[in-house]
Amino acid sequence: MLAMLAMLALLADHRRIKFDRDRSNRAVTDASDIQSFASDYYHILLQLSSCWLCSSFVRPQLNSSGNTFSFTLCSDYSKMAPPPFTLTSLFPCNPNTTRGVSTKLHISKDNKLIYANGRTVINPSTSKAYTGHSRTVTVARFSPTGFYCASADTAGTVRVWDTIGEENILKGEYRAISGQVNDLAWDGESKRIIAVGNGRETYYNSMSIQIGNHQFAQMAATASDDSTIVFYTGVPFKYEKTIKTHTRFVQDVKFSSSGDHFVSVGSDSKIFLYDGKTGETIGEFTGDVHKGSVMAADWDPTDSKRLATSSMDGTVKLWDVERKQTIQTWAVGTGVPNQQVGNAWGIDGDIVSLSLKGVINVFDKRKGDGPARVLVGSQKSITATTLTPSGTFLTGAADGRIIAYDTTDGTADIVTGAGHNTIVTAMVSVGATTLSVGFDDTLREVGADAKSMTEAATKLQSQPKVLASSSEGTAFISEINAIEAFRSNQRVAQLSVGYQPNGIATTGKVVAVGGDDNKIHLHSWNGTELKETSTLDTPRGTVTALAFSFDGKLLVAGDATGKIILFSVDEKKAIESRWTHHASRINALAWAPTGTHIASGSLDGHVFVWSVASPLTTMPIRHAGPGGVNGVAWLDAEKDRGRLATAGADGCVRVWELKLQTA
């Protein structure tokens, strides 16, 4: 049997449900209720009680009777005080997309959008990211109450978690099917979930969520890549009939909020309407139809009289359900990047449609000239970052896209023009010039306004790794067995070396290069020639990140093992080598504008802030970037406070407010 695709809808018909008091309204003194109550609080305590400083856990011990707890406290209870950092804003990544596959978006009853990217579930309305999954998340949907969210992944796991609190407490975890879950839906009472996907033993499953009194859903519809729709009734969703209206893949199926109808859309460009109680076909939508595969549909949540559809022909259409005719058409654009692959309709009337290139288009049904606004974010891992003198935070991603983030007003825009076509490995800003290099072996330039790329592009001798630039505009690039220097898009020097260069930094007169020989190679630069003058030893591993202090007197180095060493450049020796808190490769280092603190980002997903004057005083921001932190930048800093931007593998940009500790 063909695997079910990511399409289903679920409905609770309250008029036809019999209320089972014995089953649904047990006394609170029931032993099983006490156990459930205790287990809920156990999970809450377990997730809330981690020490921000030492990362140890306060373990609540649940006894065998399930009604009492004992605790093991952190050795220093004062460490449980609030941490000296606050996440003030999150620029979310946008949904990941695949050509020809419907991407699932959902909007809650209080108008919050939710979607998945990688192992993260994003709620851009509240600037929150849920990172509880260990596999790639395929779908996330709010419960009808809005208090919970269910998300599912490629391993067949469904997690139900709280959306109200800051901690997103896990309510339950369920193994739905043995393969990837493609879609899921709640019943009308937020008590039961049905999931479908690519299971080996079964292609769908339903789960009862113990949140309150049970009132079960009565109808369900699933759609498949074999061009059929299966209609189910009752619990546990007995097979009722197979519907064969489409001639190609069925991409989406949705019940109206009233439950009177459901609709299906498919790769045959057709839209069909069905009776929600019997599954009988009512008719096909006609008129100004789509010219390409229809990938998603959603109902007007206020009255179920209108329908919005998104298509690979680059258009979004609004339909009158009773007449089955087009009311309005929005053209997003032409070409593959503007194919529309997902949508959702909010309670405030906004219609959200997703482009294949990852842009979220928001339409106002009162306007017919295109999107009222667009939401931009990275679709892939952020691999490089830099801060321009004007305060714009620029990121480069694994797909070659460069995005400009305004950390003051919270907006983001794609940097237009001819950019990289693959991974951006490094970026640097000096004065009005911002340079970037990528695995396309090209050095490119971002315009002074940070909105578009210039026409300047220079081919490199080999694959670049890291980029640094001096104040007069010379760019130094570490490549495979070589270091190149460029000025005004012209190669001015090249040095072949007998090691693999990695991290690189410059003061303008001194160029430091970290190698796989566990050394930092210091070079003099006279404007036309690089000449190695001395080396610094880093005994633990390959030097992966380097940064000079603003006066050039200090050099901080991070290696592949997670160790950070602070050197005196004049004395050519280490003055601090005890910074060993990271557990994996150091990807980024940045000095605070005050010169008193250093921020580091690592593959371990943590960020640390180190004090130069008081080396043993550290500020750990643990789990700052799930999957790894690839960039850190100080937005501003004063004596006792600062703002730090971080970005990495999950495609999100986070801004932290720090209380800096002084000596």
From TrEMBL:
Signal sequence range: none
Keyword Repeat: yes
GO cellular component: cortical actin cytoskeleton
Keyword Repeat: yes
InterPro entries, per database record: Quinoprotein_ADH-like_sf (IPR011047), WD40/YVTN_repeat-like_dom_sf (IPR015943), WD40_PAC1 (IPR020472), WD40_repeat_CS (IPR019775), WD40_rpt (IPR001680)
Record-level Gene Ontology MF annotations: actin filament binding
Entry keyword set: Repeat, WD repeat
One GO process term, biological-process aspect: actin filament depolymerization
WD repeats mapped onto the chain: 130-162, 243-284, 287-329, 579-614, 644-663
PANTHER family named in the record: WD REPEAT-CONTAINING PROTEIN 1, WD-REPEATCONTAINING PROTEIN WDR1
Protein name, UniProt field: Uncharacterized protein
